[in-house]
Write a structure and sequence with these properties.
Keywords: Cell membrane, Membrane, Transmembrane, Transmembrane helix. With 128 residues, the protein is mainly alpha-helical. It has one domain. The chain has 5 helices and no strands. The longest helix is centred in the middle third of the chain and has 37 residues.
């Protein structure tokens, strides 16, 4: 009798294992956000590096824009990592409780930040 009870407990699995496909998809999404954040930070370092290479030929406005792009890209990359981590942790519980909802606010906020940095980046190349 005791053997059957142990077997049935082992077959039930954990709550996470019931929704393994959803958890794996959520993990892939989290890793995609991390890759995006690394790319955003890379753009900031690239602009900063170009800025120091071309510093003698830049106008004061170009100099200011390069600094803004570099700092804001690094800041946005870090913000993206933090928001991705928070979203991922919330999704774990939401999937297990079958109360998952899409995180529209996070995606819209990050999209707006990327658009703003892209506009500043475009202005930088028009001025330089």
């Amino acid at each position: 009798m005791k053997k059957r009870e142990n077997d049935s407990l082992q077959n039930e699995g954990t709550t996470d294992s019931k929704y393994i496909q959803q958890h794996l998809a959520s993990e892939r999404t989290f890793l995609a956000w991390i890759r995006t954040a690394i790319a955003i930070i890379g753009v900031g370092f690239l602009v900063t590096n170009l800025h120091f290479t071309m510093q003698a030929s830049l106008s004061p406005i170009g100099d200011a824009l390069a600094n803004i792009i570099g700092l804001s890209s690094v800041g946005l990359g870090i913000l993206t990592i933090v928001m991705a981590l928070i979203s991922y942790m919330r999704k774990i519980d939401a999937i297990n409780n079958q109360s998952f909802r899409t995180s529209r606010a996070t995606i819209v906020a990050l999209a707006v930040f990327v658009i703003v940095i892209s506009l500043i980046f475009g202005a930088y190349f028009l001025i330089v």
